């Protein structure tokens, strides 16, 4: 219960104004150890259908990462930040939400977006460099993938707060990396979320690095989950490679938010097994041994093992999941190999309601250039096409 700052009478404190913490800090402290479900008796209590669903999404997600990375090598995708090793966080995030909820992803969260139902090709539109967002955020209740770090967090808080004011039972779940917690937007978002008791959940995927910068060079906090206490919200710590555990912790936080309990900060401990993107060489800043340790703590294999031990997954189920992954990859490959039809003039659309004189001038220059190319027969063949 919130206690307002109370100056008191000073009578019983020797003239020093009385002070009490405004919120008791102990209940906000994160779990002493990362929550785990796999390898514990709690696994048996989870819904078998949910566990199988998580597994199928993880297998498809792993394949999506492989295929998207291959597309960068074939020149079909400008950049891809792989989430191999982080699939459990992303899939659990999508599956913890109800249809009326909103997801606020970063550039690395393509699996969370597709697990929510967005077309795998449309998820990649931004990373292909074609358009700001390939999907309709309102239809899917998924904000555009955010490249500027942590900017999605205040957006999530604003949406959640507005939903609450309108009486909607919508919860926003915002994803951010460990590096993103160093941004001012992280602070502003968490602070307002707690002050407003907004129905929002923050999931930090602590994958160890912000490109080449290890977490130890960014934060001296006991854990990122501990930061929650300073804002007045609970912090949770979970094994980010344990899909049922991430799902359980997020579901609890989402339902708490939905029922007026306010925001939660969840830190999922995971690891970015691949390089930051296809443009990065991770061998320059980390040891192969470290990567190997995490490869052994693999989210897909861990879940498969847990399900098989309980008799919840047969060879046929595993083959079916693998076949679904191959079908998705083949479709992705085929559709990404056809040239998008783009209209370069759209660069100027949706910038301002009233374009500035400079933009009008640039627009006219580009139009003239495209017309000249087209008259000379050297155009890109994309002029005037819809996207
Ligand atoms: C505001 C801002 N500053 C810097 C960058 C450049 N940048 C892109 S990714 C990245 C590291 C982010 O690390 P983290 O938040 O841990 O996420 P991860 O990439 O590991 O998922 C940086 C600094 C950016 N995109 N936005």
UniProtKB/TrEMBL annotation:
<feature type="domain" description="Dehydrogenase E1 component">
    <location>
        <begin position="59"/>
        <end position="340"/>
    </location>
</feature>
<dbReference type="GO" id="GO:0009083">
    <property type="term" value="P:branched-chain amino acid catabolic process"/>
</dbReference>
<keyword id="KW-0560">Oxidoreductase</keyword>
<dbReference type="InterPro" id="IPR001017">
    <property type="entry name" value="DH_E1"/>
</dbReference>
<keyword id="KW-0670">Pyruvate</keyword>
<keyword id="KW-0786">Thiamine pyrophosphate</keyword>
<dbReference type="InterPro" id="IPR017596">
    <property type="entry name" value="PdhA/BkdA"/>
</dbReference>
<protein>
    <submittedName>
        <fullName>Pyruvate dehydrogenase (Acetyl-transferring) E1 component subunit alpha</fullName>
    </submittedName>
</protein>
<dbReference type="GO" id="GO:0000287">
    <property type="term" value="F:magnesium ion binding"/>
</dbReference>
<dbReference type="InterPro" id="IPR050771">
    <property type="entry name" value="Alpha-ketoacid_DH_E1_comp"/>
</dbReference>
<dbReference type="InterPro" id="IPR029061">
    <property type="entry name" value="THDP-binding"/>
</dbReference>
<dbReference type="GO" id="GO:0016624">
    <property type="term" value="F:oxidoreductase activity, acting on the aldehyde or oxo group of donors, disulfide as acceptor"/>
</dbReference>
<dbReference type="Pfam" id="PF00676">
    <property type="entry name" value="E1_dh"/>
</dbReference>
<feature type="region of interest" description="Disordered">
    <location>
        <begin position="1"/>
        <end position="26"/>
    </location>
</feature>
